Amino acid sequence: FVADVPVRFHTALAETGLIRTVDGRFYPDEPILWGDYVMLLNRLVPPGGLTEWANPLEQALGLTTAPTVAAHYPSQYYQPDRPLVRAEGVMALAAKLGANHEIAANTLINNNLQDGRQVPPYAREGVAAALVQGVVVNYPLADQLNPTQRLTRGEAAALVCRASTNPLLRQQIDAAWVAAAQRPEEVPAPIPNAGVWLTNIDSQVLFSKDALATAVDQLAGLNFNTLYPTVWNWGYTLYPSPTAQRQMGIRQHLYADLRAPSPGANEDERDMLQEAIELGQRQGNGGDSLV
Q1: pLDDT in tens, 47-64
Q2: What are phi and psi of 56, to 5 degrees?
Q3: Rounded Cα distance, 124 and 160, in Å
Q4: pLDDT at 289 over 60
Q5: Are 211 and 205 in contact (CB under 8 A)?
Q6: How many other β-carbons are positioned within 10 Å of the β-carbon of residue 286?
Q7: Are strands 236-237 and 232-233 parallel, antiparallel or unpaired?
Q8: Helices (H), ranges, 180-241
Q9: Is the pTM of this model over 0.85?
Q10: Inter-residue long-range contacts of 38-42, CB under 8 Å, 24+ positions, other chains counted
């Protein structure tokens, strides 16, 4: 891969301090280890503090917002001294960039990558998010990820360069190597009672009124006409419930977190259920139905 890249590619990486070597060599064709790759990503985006909800990979990346596209990554798979495959590397990059979960992630992957069906289940959300972010670099064929092949040091550097906000680094990556993420141009015809489940697991859609409003607008544009908001998870109500307050001492527990909330904890007293009803009722074309 790197043999076809100009010498300025290595120079730019060295000048920004993203790549450091002890003996002056980079060894671009060698597999990169998880520990080295995480270090590279943390130089790209400084890590945050440790969080109790995070799995080992999320902790290593210093992610501060849940849920992430790395949430389904098996805890035992993250080993700093283990080489990783390309799908893992792309997923970790998407998580580090804070990329959101995508609607129809499987369709995005299968439609835009020749070998999309080979992407492991735990990495599919992350690969879809990275595709939409435009940070998936494949060489020589942009639409061939080779998801189960080991990620080389040169390939890892290319991913980081593409994801960087530094124009000096981004310009090193030929646009012809960047995988496209084209969505279907035609929206399906309306389907009676086409509904969507809204949850606080692996989705941030319920965590703010702005996010919920954006989601409802997008779903209405896709001809969905029914919302199914989750109202109970992990033994708690997601909306303010006087009954829950009376019986359990916990009024609501909206945010995706396996820890039990503290009695009397205030989650801004947002009533996501009422918000969903009001936002749904404002939509036309049959979009005012909410179950």
Answers
A1: 998 778 899 999 999 999
A2: -55, -40
A3: 19
A4: no
A5: yes
A6: 15
A7: antiparallel
A8: 209-221
A9: no
A10: 38/80, 38/92, 40/156, 40/157, 40/160, 41/92, 41/93, 41/96, 41/160, 42/96
